[in-house]
Structure formats: structure tokens, C-alpha cells
Amino acid sequence: MSHRLPEPDPDGFCAEAWRHTAELQRAIVRHPFNRALAEGTLQRDRFVFYLVQDSRYLVGFAQALAGAAARADEPEDAEFLARSAHGALAEERALHAGYFERFGLTERETAGIETSPTCLAYTSYLRASAQSSPYPVLVAALLPCFWVYQHVGSTILEETGDTAEHPYGRWIETYADEEFATAVLGARELTDRLASAADERTRQRMLTAFVRCSEYEWLFWNSAWEREQWPTARWLPHRGATAE
User: pTM score, two decimals?
Assistant: First the structure.
């Protein structure tokens, strides 16, 4: 069952940020990767490339969440962010492991897929935000990974209906279920609360961070669709495959 989120407070930051990126959010749902995933026609090599990049991305995402948890003023916010950091590594890695087994992926095969320029750029942006951005700006940068995935997952589930025989059904259900929707609502509530207490300059920086990470979400799916390579690799044949 798909869990559509309630609309955010129309006067809050999240509503403004979503309106600001509305066309981009539609483009993400319509991206060929997500269209093929929804139809069950996505080629194995593209999904495998995505899984490998996502498993590496999650390390940086979890580190940024942990950094946010350490800077939270309220104990319940620190608990939410720390729990989200753990979940990013534990639950989603379990999902990846299931698909790795299903596709018969070996450690040697995954190690041969280099971290893409987009994956490295996105994780570097989040790590840099955790180190140098104000706490509200960091939280705004983390929000798209929650919200965009839930939006994509719930939209696809509404389109496909029963996923029992769908080759990517478990992925769809993970991001469309009630538990993940609850986490997204928690992230939205925290972001709105921080924005309401922030000055205008900080709110603008929050919006910039939300937009940038929404752009990275599109780029991430596009990099999987294109199986993005480093254009400089032709001149560096002996570079390690997973080097960052």
C-alpha cells in the first residue's frame, strides 16, 4: 500500500522548497531510469550500477546524519537523526544484499565498478555540509534523500499496484511503506521547525542546499542510467576501480 504524505504547512519552508523544485521533482519521477524501474524493464546492469553507487553513497549520507545528530540542540532531534543514520546503513544495505544475492553479484564484480563522479560529488557535498554549514542548512541538505525517494517510491507503487511479481517490488515497497513515510514526516517537521527559527539569510542557504541536493538526486539516477564513467579514465588505465 502506498503512503502518500500529507501536504506540508503551506507557510513553512518545506512547502516553499517543494514548490521551488516542483518541475525538477516531476523530472525525477519521469526519468528513464525510474520509468523503466516502474515498468519492470530496467536492465540488470543499470540497476546493479545503481545499487553499487547507492551503497557507497549511504556511507556519506549516514556520516552527515551522524554529524547532524551531534549538533542537534534537542535530545529528540538527536535521537531521530542518529536513528536515521543507523537505518541508512542497516535497513537499506539489507535491501541491497537481497538484490546482490538475487542477481548473483560477487564481491569481485562490485569492486570492479568505480565510484561515479556524481556519487563522489554528492557525498562530498554532504560531508562538507556536515563540517562547515550551519546546522539548519545541513538538515535541509539531508531532506531530499528522504523526501524525493518517498515521492518516487509512492508514485511508482500507485502506478504498478501489486508488486508481488515485480522484479523491483521490494525496492518500491521499501520507499513507499508507512515506516519510511513516518521518517520523511519527521525530517520535514525538523526542517520546518529549524527554518522558522532561522534568520532570512540562513533560510536562503537552506533553500540553496535543498535545491542542490534535489539536483544531485536527479543526477544520481541519471548516472545509473548512463552508467557514468570518469571521462579521464582513458588516460589512467591502472587507477583502482573503487578509488575515491
Answer: 0.94
Among 150, 128, 166, 158, residue whose Cα is nearest residue 217? 150
Name, in order, each residue with C-beta under 8 angstroms of 10's C-beta and a sequence gap of 6 or more.
none
- What digits encode the pLDDT tens for the residues 182-240? 999 999 999 999 999 999 999 999 999 999 999 999 999 999 999 999 999 888 876 65
CB atoms within 10 A of CB 216: 22
User: Is residue 1 one of the residues assigned to a domain?
Assistant: no
Nearest to 166 by CA among 153, 181, 182: 153
Residues assigned a catalytic role: 145, 217
- Asked whether residue 4 is assigned to any structural domain, the reply reads no
89 part of a folded domain: yes
Cβ neighbours for 47, distance < 8 A, ≥ 6 positions apart: 37, 99, 103, 168, 224
- pLDDT (tens digit per residue) in 72-106: 999 999 999 999 999 888 876 787 778 888 888 87
- C-alpha dihedral over 206, 83, 80, 145, to 10 degrees? 30
All three cell numbers of 201, joined, read: 539569510
Q: Which domain holds residue 158?
A: 13-228
The DSSP result for 28-65, as a single string, is: HHHSHHHHHHHHT---HHHHHHHHHHHHHHHHHHHHHH
Structural domain total, the chain: 1
* Residue 8 maps to a domain: no
